[in-house]
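Feature request disguised as a bug report, sorry. It would help if multi-protein outputs had a clear separator. Right now it looks like this:
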Amino acid sequence: MGAALLVQRDPDPFQAISDFLESPVLRISGQLFLLLVVVLWLSLVYWTYMDAGRRGASRLLWGLVAVLFPYVGTLIYLIVRPPEYVEESRERELELAILERELRSRMPLCPNCRSPVERDFILCPACGWELKKRCAGCERPLNMEWGVCPYCGTDQRSGKKTGW
């Protein structure tokens, strides 16, 4: 009878593990973890879909890749996605266009061939177009429409100095 009491008193060492695995706390914790994994996956699918649209890539294609290949699809997208957003690209292009326009306004262009020329050029080096005329008195370059040289006061039509 003493041996029978020992067998009944010794608990099964695996019973505690079995009770823990069958406990409602573990089951609820497992379900919450699964819910977290699914919510994270759906969030990554949504983020991939939206980011692809902002970057000019195909939303449908990358959203489908993220759905079919959980977690890995978003990782692949992160590796091959376009480097900048469409808005950033357009903004950079506009800034470049403004800078080019500003540069053109500072540097005169030949009216014939639109090549850049310096302000004191008399002829365009690209096409030979006459940009300015030389003063009859001092030989300095003058605009074509000037009638009197502002440097020496010579009248360009008659070649004589004015009374200044």
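(second protein starts here, but nothing in the output says so)
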Amino acid sequence: MLEQFKECDTAVLLLVNGHHNLFWDRVMWFASGETSWIPLYVFLLFVLISYYKKQSWSLIFPIILLIIMSDQLASGVIKPLTERLRPSHQPGLEPLLHFVNSYQGGTYGFVSSHACNFFALVTYLSMATAKRILWLPYLLFPIAALVTYSRVYLGVHYPSDVLVAAILGIFIGWVISKLYNRLNQAIQTKASTNKISA
């Protein structure tokens, strides 16, 4: 059963990585870039401040905790524990892959930090702003899917690396959004109590 899963995982990887051309090489290289999405982050910051004004700090602050939590869990805990080689470092598989700009990533790939971080962020923001910014998930989830797909396209992750990472990221985003909602409710309750007392 495990061998069949590995074979399927590799087959999907080769299918995705094998359908490449110069245009998609550039798109996927951009999607995986560490600084590529800085304009998006600036835009999101602007949107949150525009919608939430002074209350935006309580929405933005948990993002710091979320990114630290997701990144450290993926890169600092799971990768060292599992030590699963990236396909780009797998003997016998490496020669079959197409690499963009000779990029092969670090040694271990399970789970994908890119996928985990992105899905944690978009899940948190989508759930935390669900009552006010209804269009946000329609923007963010396709971007997270593109980034996740790009990791397989570039040959640096198996499909299972990004799938498990996405599920983990969604769970982390859900947890942090629940914490945010409790914090927000506590702040509003305290504010209401102070108004009544005054």
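Even a blank line would do. Unrelated, but nice: DSSP finds seven helices and no strands in the chain.
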